[in-house]
Design goal:
mainly beta, about 230 residues, ten-stranded mixed beta sheet
């Protein structure tokens, strides 16, 4: 639960970013791009434990359960690194073209006054793909890996999550005026906890913070199938 703060000031942020790009003389052969950035946020709108009114003394110290919070301005810093690349694996008239693509994302947000991690920060994650293109068909085998959420907002009792890896399959066929897309996500139907999926509050006495079981995340979707047909005219 959140309690408002009439004296909140608007956030002001300054970002320093550096981008580097490496690629082969033939641009289609390989390419690597990296972007590093740091953002200093003044008057970042964070939260602190409520210790007045309906807030109990235990609300200020508990490390489990849902807590009552009040919005407050704090200094913060957000740092990140995004790396993406692609490379030609091979091509032939019979089998078509094969490419490998990858993305790596690193992010860290820190409340500079308390030293705690900012809320809802995505942990390290990467996506690796192998793509085959041939005679209007495009087939993709994608592996998504997400690290465990260990850097969390302790003031909110943010729930930690474990790391996981998921396999996805995509295929598409394109014609002059139409495109067919088929997709299977989470091929092996693996149970996983998305780090930004939120807390599950669908059971218990949901009109009171003490009546909801704490520590249950919203699970990610299991094996999913999707079909899309697009016409252009």
């Amino acid at each position: 639960g959140y309690i408002g703060q009439e004296g909140l000031r608007p956030e002001v942020a300054h970002t320093l970013s550096v981008t580097a790009l490496w690629r082969s003389l033939e641009p289609e052969h390989w390419q690597l791009k990296a972007n590093a950035y740091v953002t200093r946020v003044f008057d970042y709108i964070d939260a602190q434990r409520c210790d007045f009114g309906q807030c109990s003394a235990a609300n200020a110290t508990t490390r489990t359960g849902f807590v009552l919070l009040q919005y407050v301005n704090k200094p913060a810093r957000i740092e990140g690194l995004d790396v993406s690349g692609r490379a030609l694996l091979g091509r032939s008239t019979q089998w078509g073209r094969f490419d490998m693509q990858g993305v790596v994302n690193l992010l860290r947000g820190t409340n500079l006054e308390t030293g705690q991690s900012l809320y809802n920060m995505m942990p390290a994650n990467t996506t690796l793909s192998i793509v085959r293109q041939h005679e209007g068909w495009s087939n993709t085998l994608e592996w998504q890996v997400v690290g465990g959420k260990r850097n969390r907002s302790e003031v909110r009792n943010e729930i930690p999550t474990g790391g996981y890896g998921l396999l996805h399959l995509r295929t598409s066929r394109e014609w002059r005026n139409a495109r067919l897309d088929l997709r299977i996500d989470n091929v092996f139907n693996r149970f996983h906890q998305p780090p930004l999926g939120g807390a599950y509050v669908g059971q218990g006495a949901s009109m009171t913070t003490s009546g909801i079981p704490w520590g249950i995340t919203v699970p990610g979707p299991g094996r999913s199938f999707s079909v899309a047909l697009t016409f252009r005219y």
